[in-house]
Design a protein that fits this description.
By secondary structure, this protein is α/β, with parallel strands linked by helices. The chain contains ten helices and nine strands. The strands form two sheets. The protein has a six-stranded parallel sheet. A three-stranded parallel sheet has the order 1-9-8, with no helix packed on it. Helix 6 packs parallel to helix 7. It comes from Kribbella soli.
């Protein structure tokens, strides 16, 4: 069984795969050692490691090299936050991405440079082209940005997310990710009406994995939150302690 098939089969509505987001080979190995069945990355977190802001500012060669180091460091499936594809044509995207050894990728439907939503037909065509080029070799997680981009009124955002989710699944996505949704009733509605696997973001932990499972979610991820939490401790506790000549390891 290929790693892509493994990841795809683990996305079970109501029994979600929990996929912690790593940012380098060392953190990916920690995720695997802790017993998780797959590793995700966060574009925000990996861009920070490379010295860039999120939003496709990091050079694509560096992003792909980082993905390869992570994928080659673990034996479980790796799925990469690949933003909107770094302006690569679908065939080149698939060829270069598959070469990293990662077997899944997030593709978002807003322009990282402007924040504007991509036309739904254009995005569906893009996802379909990636699927055609990849066959079953990649697990496509189609991100829906209607909520974080505030695309219209609250009701319009829901309608937009449902329409896009359905169309992305029809285009060949394996899972859809309506990022920025924490309301459990809304998540349940999206799961029921989209008609396919849904990825929920854990956020700051207002909801538990069990809460998401009860609403039919198929995948739970964490974005850059683990890295942010650890880096905040480094910046706010450890470094100030040593600057004040206190033992940082007892802070």
């Amino acid at each position: 069984m290929s790693l892509a098939t493994t990841l795809r089969d683990l996305q079970v509505p109501g029994t979600p795969i929990v996929v912690p987001n790593a940012w380098d080979a060392a953190s990916a190995r920690m995720v695997e050692a802790a017993g998780f069945a797959a590793v995700a990355t966060s574009s925000n977190a990996t861009a920070a490691v490379l010295g860039y802001e999120d939003g496709e500012h990091a050079p694509v060669d560096d992003v792909l090299a980082g993905a390869a180091r992570i994928a080659q460091s673990v034996s479980v499936p790796v799925t990469v936050d690949f933003e909107r594809g770094y302006r690569l044509a679908p065939e080149e995207l698939v060829e270069r991405f598959v070469a990293t050894g990662a077997v899944g990728l997030n593709l978002e439907d807003s322009d990282p440079a402007t924040g504007s939503m991509i036309d739904v037909s254009e995005q569906a065509d893009f996802l379909a082209a990636v699927r055609a080029a990849a066959g079953d070799a990649l697990v496509i997680n189609a991100r829906i940005d209607a909520f974080i981009r505030q695309a219209g009124t609250a009701d319009e955002q829901v309608r937009t997310a449902l329409d896009r989710g359905q169309r992305y699944l029809q285009a060949g996505a394996d899972c859809v990710y309506p990022i920025g949704v924490g309301d459990l009733d809304l998540i349940a509605t999206l799961v029921t009406e989209v008609g396919g696997p849904v990825n929920a973001g854990y956020g700051q932990g207002a909801n538990s994995v069990a809460d998401y499972a009860a609403r039919g979610v198929a995948r739970v991820t964490f974005g850059p939150m683990f890295q942010r939490h650890l880096y905040a401790k480094f910046a706010d506790a450890l470094l100030p302690a040593i600057a004040a000549d206190r033992n940082p390891f007892t802070a």
